[in-house]
Write a structure and sequence with these properties.
The complex is a heterodimer. Chain A is built from 2 helices and no strands. Chain A is mainly α. In chain B, α1 runs antiparallel to α2, α2 packs antiparallel against α3 and α3 packs antiparallel against α4. The chains are: A mainly alpha, B mainly alpha.
């Protein structure tokens, strides 16, 4: 791979990596706050925190499925 | 090391560093984590791994004239299957750990059952992370 090809590839990948990084930070913030709150309270993860994480996972899994040539049926995903 | 491998390795290192801060912060808390909290963090890890799998799946598909930094349909599908299995394992274990968490005085057997489902979810996460971090080459996985 030549240097111009390498630069072009990095430029192409950068938005994806930055987008992923923002999502990683958001998920980690949500998760760490939820566990902190649970440990400060009765030890249980709140239904709202589970729902927020479930929404993240569901969206990301659906996005991954959308990049498959033969995506699984909606009932599988 | 390919560009993709390097880029994703950096992303994973940053994520691990952030995880370390989270876990390190939680470790200063006096109370040990319950199986439910462990399961919650496991699902967080699954989501991070899915993001990595998604980054792989969005690369151009390997083929003639395509750069070495490419993905294959089979590998993307396999990563999806591992992601789905990990999510399903966490979701299947959740009612168990929640039920035990609600008990006033759970028996040793109940606590063991909750620990087992948390461990099963952690194992599913490890399989997914293993597949994502050891980035598959063309035709592998």
């Amino acid at each position: 791979m030549t240097i111009p090809q390498l630069i072009l590839l990095l430029v192409q990948l950068l938005p994806t990596l930055l987008d992923d990084w923002n999502k990683i930070v958001a998920v980690l913030d949500t998760s760490s706050a939820a566990v902190r709150n649970a440990q400060a309270g009765d030890g249980k993860i709140s239904a709202e925190d589970w729902a927020a994480l479930d929404a993240h996972v569901e969206g990301d899994l659906a996005r991954l499925a959308s990049h498959l040539e033969d995506p699984p049926a909606a009932t599988e995903a | 090391m390919s560009v993709l491998r390097a880029a994703l390795a950096v992303t994973m290192l940053l994520a691990v560093a952030a995880c370390g801060q989270t876990i390190g912060g939680a470790r200063t808390m006096p109370a040990p984590k319950t199986p439910e909290q462990v399961l919650f963090e496991t699902k967080t890890g699954v989501d991070l791994a899915i993001l990595q799998a998604d980054a792989y799946a969005t690369l151009p598909r390997c083929g003639p004239g395509v750069s070495p930094v490419c993905s294959t349909s089979a590998n993307a599908k396999r990563l999806y299957a591992l992601s789905k299995t990990a999510v399903d394992t966490v979701d299947a274990g959740r009612p168990v750990v929640e039920a035990v968490a609600k008990m006033q005085n759970p028996s040793t057997s109940d606590q063991q059952k909750a620990q087992e489902v948390a461990d099963a979810a952690a194992a599913a996460l490890q399989r997914l992370v293993g597949a994502v971090t050891v980035l598959p080459k063309k035709g592998e996985l």
